[in-house]
């Protein structure tokens, strides 16, 4: 009997460029803090008179930390326990994903499937998502993130959660 999805320790593997795209919002949120903290070092400004600037820097650092935590958490897999082997889960997933209309962009026999789910202009809710499935014994690990090969995004407006739910529902029927 399949179990509901639970967080798993594994994370999505990204290239350096994909990491930059994925972490673009936290990096961008650091810019005001960097400017506010760097400016006194290169000028003769008196640090005591910089009240509002330091407040902006503190808010910027706090937002960047929050965004970093959100983006890092998004890389973790959800595990689905099944009563089937990795090979049969893999075969079932390939057929189910094709039926769902998801574009399989990469697959490693009985180990990994990466799909691309269309976004804008097909849907106005997101730029597109990357769904990854991994197969380990009777576990299916699933993750959905904003596609790092497209425009950087902090949110997919619920589409990543919907994608994971769809995969969980696929395996609930077997």
Give the helix/strand layout.
Layout: E1 6-11, H1 16-22, H2 24-42, H3 51-74, E2 76-81, H4 86-100, E3 103-108, E4 112-118, E5 128-136, E6 139-146, H5 159-172
Antiparallel strand pairs: 1-2, 2-6, 3-4, 4-5, 5-6
Helix pairs in contact: 2-3
Features:
2 domains, elongated, TATA-Binding Protein, 5 helices, 24% strand, alpha+beta, six-stranded antiparallel sheet, 174 residues
Structure characterization notes:
- The chain is α+β, with helices and mostly antiparallel strands and 174 residues long.
- It has two domains: 6-11 and 77-172, Kinase associated domain 1, KA1 (TATA-Binding Protein, 2-Layer Sandwich); 19-71.
- It has five helices and six strands, in the order E-H-H-H-E-H-E-E-E-E-H.
- Strands 1-2-6-5-4-3 form a six-stranded antiparallel sheet.
- Strand 5 (128-136) and strand 6 form a beta hairpin.
- It is elongated and about 65 Å long.
User: How do the SSEs run, as a string of H and E?
Assistant: EHHHEHEEEEH
The radius of gyration over CA amounts to: 20 Å
Low-confidence spans: none
Classify the helix fraction into a percent range. Answer: 40-55%
Overall shape: elongated
- Supply the CATH class of the largest domain: Alpha Beta
Strand content: 15-25%
Q: Estimate the mean pLDDT confidence.
A: 79
